[in-house]
Every structure is written in C-alpha cells, then in structure tokens.
Amino acid sequence: MRTDKFASHAGQLYGIIAALLAVFIAGLIVLEQIGVPGPIIGFLLVTATLALYAGIAVASRTVHVADYYVAGRQVPALYNGMATAADWMSGASFIGLAGTLYMLGFDGLAYLLGWVGGFVLIAVLIAPYLRKFGAFTIPDFLAARFGGHAARLTGVVVLFACSFTYVVAQFYATGLIASRFLGISFETGVYVGLGTVLVCSLLGGMRSVTWTQAAQYLVLIIAFMLPVAILSAQHFGVPVVQFAYGEALARIAALEQQMLASGLADPATLVRHLVPGEALDRLNFTALIVCLMIGTASLPHLLMRFLTTSSVRDARRSAGWSLGFILLLYLTAPAYAAFAKLEVYQNVIGAGLQALPDWIYSYGRLGLVEICGRAAASAAAVREACAAMPENTGVLRLGDLAIDRDVIVLALPEIAGLPYVIAGLVAAGALAATLSTANGLLLAIGNALGHDVYYRVVDARAPASRRLLVARLFLLASATLAAVLAASRPSDLLSMVAWAFSLAAAGFFPALVLGIWWKRCTAAGAVSGMLAGFGLTLAYLVLTQYGGMAEWFGIRNTSAAIFGLPVGFAVTILVSLLTPAPSRHVQAMVEEFRKPAGRPGMLDGAP
Amino acid sequence: MIGYGKQARDLPARRWRRTVGLAAVTIVLLAVLVLVVPAFADRLNAVVIAGFPLGYFMAAQGSLLLVLLLTVWFIFRQERLDREGGVAEPEPFDAGEDIR
After folding, report:
1. From the list B60, B74, B87, which residue is nearest A109 (CB)?
2. Which CATH class name applies to A5-243+277-335+419-496?
3. How far is the C-alpha of A144 from the C-alpha of A582, rounded, in Å?
4. Which of A400, A436, A504, A543 would bridge A216 by S-S if both were Cys, CB 3.0 to 4.6 A apart?
5. Do the beta carbons of residue A208 and residue A62 sit within 8 Å?
C-alpha cells in the first residue's frame, strides 16, 4: 500500500502552517502601524490564504482512483476531524450564526444544540459502519446494501436535492465577502471563489480537499476566536470569553427592562435575550433541534468525510475530534452575540440621532443597517428618514433599527476598535469557511454523478483514467453551473438552503440507520421509505412556501422533516415486513460490516 | 470444549447486543442534554452563576460540553466492547506497512 506523504507528515506540516500564519498576521499588524492602508492589508491577507490552499492542493494532486474518491483512506482521525469541521462550517455559519443568536435570543440556541447533537448520531449510528463497508459514496453504500440501481439513483436524487442549493449559497457568500471586504465586484468574487474551489478539488479530489480543509480550519478558527479573545482580555482581563460573558448577559437583561420602562422598546417586538419562547414556540424549538440533529447526521458531504480515515476506530474518533473543533466556534458564538447586543443596547438605542457610533454608518452604506426603514448611510440620511416617521422624538428606539444578521461578526472588530488586520482576518476566515464547504459539497455531487451514475450505471467497464476524467468533468460542470446561478443572485434558490437539513434527514436517515441496524430491512422497504419521506418533506416545503398551504400544527417549514421522518421510518418498516427477507448473502454482509475488524464489503469502491 | 466453542460463537453476538445497548443509552443521554434540559430553561434561569442564568448557560455552553464528554465516553466504551468482543482492528503500530 502506498503511504500518503501528507498523512505521515501532517503534524509537522500544519505546525509550520500555523506558525507561518501567526508570523504573517504579526507582520501585517506592523505594516498597518507604519501606515500601509487597510484595503491593501486585507487584500494581502486574503491572497496569501488563497495561495496557501492552492499550494496544498497542487502538492496533493493525484492520479489514483482511491485518492480521488476517499483520499486513499489514510487520513488520521485528528486531521479528519479538522477537515470535517471546516467541511461542516459554512460561510453562513461563520458569519451568520452569532447574528442568529443575536436576533432570536435563547431560541437561536436550537441551532447549536441540534448541530452538536448530530455529530453524536454520526459517531454512534452511522460513520463507523459506513467506513467499514468501504464504499466510495453514500449512494454506493445504499446500492450495495439494497442491491440495484433503484436505491442508488434515489440516493443520487436526494443527495443532489440537499447539496446543490447549498453550493450555490456558498458561491453567493464568496461574492458577498469579496465585495464587502476586498472592494471587488460581487460577480468577480463569485468567479474567484469558483477558481479556488476548482484548483482545490479538480487536481486531487478528496485528497487535496481533505488537506486544504484542514488548513482552512486553522484559518477560520483563528479568525473567529482572535477578535473576541482580544475583546475579552480588554473587558474582563481573561481571553477566555466563553465563560466570561455572564456579566454582559446580566447587563443586557437589565437594559431590556429599562428600555421597556422608558418606552424605547415595544413589549410586542422585543426579543428578550435570555427567555425561551420569545422567537419560536416550544413545539417549533424542539422540532427544529430534532430536524437539525438528524439532518446533520444525514448530509452526504459530511458523511463522505468519514470514508477517508484509515480505520473504523479512526472514523469514530474523528467524529469526536470534529465535534471538539466545531465546539470551539460554537461556544464562542453566544459571546459574540452578547457583546454586540450590549453595544447596541448601551450605545445605539436611546442615543440621539446625531450621536450614533461610526460603525452604524459604515455598515449602513453597505445596506446592512437600516434606521427608520432606510439604509443608514450617513447622519443626514438617518435624520431625514426618521423625521418622516410619526411620533419620532429625535431619539433612536429599538423598533427603528434593523441590523442584518451578518453585521454582528463583521462589525465586532470595528466596534471594539481593533486594528484593520483583524477585520481582514475575519474576511479570510469567512472565505475559508465558505470555500471548504463548497469543496466538500461539489465533491459529493461530482462523485455521485461520476461514480454512481456514470461508472456504476452507464459504463461499468470504464478504465480508471476515464473514470477520473468523467468525475472531474462532472465536478467542473456542477461547479460552473452553481457559480453562474450564484452570480445571478437567485433569492428563491438561496431561501431553499434551509431546506437541506430536512430533505437529507427525511431522505437518507431511515434508509441508512435501518440498513445498518436492522438486517430485515429490504430494498423495496428502503427505496419506498426514502421516496415517501423525501417526497412528503419536499411537498410540505414547496406547498407551505409557494402553494399557500397552512402549516400543520403550526410547524415552520424549516422543520419539515418532523413529518417526513416518521413517515419514512414507518414506510420502510412496513414495506420491509411485507416483502421477503434480504438474501442470506446480504444478511452476512450486514453482519460483517458491523465488526470493525476483517475484510471490508467493498475494496476501492468495487464489490 | 463444547462450552468453549459455544462461548466463542456467542462472543460476536454478545458484543453486538452490548453495542445496541450502548447506542441506546448514548442516544437517550443525548436527548436529555439537547431536548429535555433546554425545555426547563425557564426554571433553570432562576439560578444565576457568575452572571449566567443557568438555563441560558446550559443551552449555550453547558449541554454542548456535556455532549462532547458523552461522545468521548461513548468512543472509549465502544472501543472496549470491540476489543472484548474480539472484533477490534489491529492497533496501527502492529499492522506493519510491509504486511499490508
């Protein structure tokens, strides 16, 4: 077996990368002190990180099928954990999560709870068994377990439904970040993102994506933690903000009471930060956690990462590592939200319209902060907009202010008066989060088309070189299509991203879990269960969003899988019981992949 | 001899039963941490520690850290079950590159 030079030297390599990053950031701080303008520093920072990813990708290019699909199955647990964390955390998660916690208060924590819980389900129910089985893709596993093209092609459809809109959203985010920070146009930003993604995934497939994702994790986590650590050291004297922002929470609660008493806030619209049930009722809160949790455990681009480890033990351990790496960001996000809220309640609400802080205007010019219904581009614009409002007293009330949720993370360095390098770092981190997720998703789509549709269904005798060529062409085509769509700013498509979790949960979870844990589960059962669960979920999403259908039991459509999941399980079980038990051969195969030791069910993706 | 043979045959089956049990326990504990504890946030919020209302703290950090602990515990338990069941993979250092 070939040994992977990346896998055997990963410790040294990423140690050097982390050290270089630290030196580089320190160097940029010096440059800023001696008067180099901010935009140039931001540009240097972003270009350097993109060059780093491209360098790793070129160094890890490959001509081997197993490298292309599963990184040669040599990724150590720790690095697979890092890569999975980067794969998992999208640009929206990096930039928008703290903003969501700001907007929804306590109820926003449903996202943290659900996503974190999903990784436990992966470690317990799915990852070790998928890894032992030895497939190249999720549809590949379904096809082998449930014999035949029906399960494979249903799997490809579900995979495409939950991955494609997600990719478009990643490219869209690239365009936004580039246009806000680097001063280049939105469209150029999208195509720069496309170029970087193609360099990272076309050359080495899963192998180069894995090793660039590990580097992208380093960049994104430094970018997320550094600003808030500095802020915390300034305010509380300790850089561990995660356990120090309690005081900020207490002051927020006190300010909320003051604002209600003085009439600055309207009790009907104020979302109290610490109180459950202010933004989501209890039923929706719980349903959202369940759907996010099961959806996380079913997303194909995430599950695919666990096929790359060198053993079943490492697959399970890497789920634990990725949870740890993700928690670093998740435990910090509530602190971001609390600091931003305290700043707004203390220094913005109740301030005279002449005396607003500068950051309001700099984000108002980008259209991200609206006051009295209009973009807060300048003090004059704010005064004019508010003068037109009835009952305005020249003081900013809570109801007059509308902040885009992305502002929370983007503006924090500026609010805290940190050097521009830090703001540039946040942009680089957001790009790392976006590109790493786009890479994982595109590889999932490209591999499903290249391996499952072309190799397995169309031409099972294709030689390795042609398989790789076709897989790369599909990747190129889907990436280009996604970027072109993103450049057209498709608002409907972007709003569908939230659907991915429910679609994946209802489409994949019953078939995967029952396929592994219930030997009696049959092909007919799994396929009809996938179709029923996925179909019902999709119908609920489309009909409530566009068909004007009333919500069932008031469940919002982001939690649509709460109906699709039980139906998927029930149909799978019922149809399985009504059809003859799987063959002795299939049952023996299930027995075999439940044991970590021994031969895999498939070798290099071939039975 | 008969007893030994029966035991050897039952070993994988017993390991699988215990694996199912461990999975069930882990998922029940997970549900307690991410579904039940946040549902009582209202009442827990009455307790304030270092400025943190306990209900908010549990949902924002406490439960999440406990979930991480739960995962680590599960991983070690499962690896022990696999070793005791005789189905664990060889340790990496004795696999030997040349043999593979």
Report:
1. B60
2. mainly alpha
3. 12
4. A436
5. yes
> Alpha helices of A518-560 — where are they, by DSSP H?
523-545
Is residue A605 classed exposed, middle or buried when 0-12, 13-18 and 19+ CB atoms within 10 A define those classes? buried
Q: Return the structure tokens found at A363.
A: 């984000």
CA distance A1 to A580: 41
Mean pLDDT of A125-153: 92
The pTM for the full model equals: 0.93
B71 vs A236, higher pLDDT: B71
pLDDT digits (tens, 9 = 90+) for B6-65: 555 688 889 999 999 999 999 999 999 999 999 999 899 899 888 889 999 999 999 999
Question: Which residues touch A584 (CB under 8 Å, ≥6 apart)?
Answer: none
Let me know: does A299 contact A504? Beta carbons within 8 Å: yes
Number of H helices, E strands in chain A: 27, 3
Between positions 65 and 84 of B, the ones with CB within 8 A of A are: 65, 67-68, 70-72, 74-75, 78-79, 82
Residue A120 is nearest to which of B20, B48, B71, comparing CB atoms?
B71
* C-alpha to C-alpha distances, A56 to A10, A52, A119, A227, A250, nearest whole angstrom: 12, 6, 27, 27, 46
Reading the block at residue A168, the tokens are 């478009």
Helices A186-202 and A420-447: crossing angle, nearest 10°? 60
ipTM surpasses cut 0.85: yes
Domain ranges of chain A: 5-243+277-335+419-496, 498-599
- Terminal CA-CA length for chain B: 34
Q: State how far the Cα of A497 lies from the Cα of A304, in Å rounded to an integer.
A: 20
Question: A161-183, pLDDT tens digit by residue?
Answer: 999 989 999 999 898 888 877 77
Cβ-Cβ contacts under 8 Å, A110 against chain B: 38
The dihedral through the CA atoms of B42, B43, B44, B49 has a sign that is positive
Give contacts of B 6-65 with A, CB under 8 A.
12, 16, 19-20, 23, 26-27, 30, 33-35, 38-39, 41-42, 45, 48-53, 55-57, 59-61, 63-65
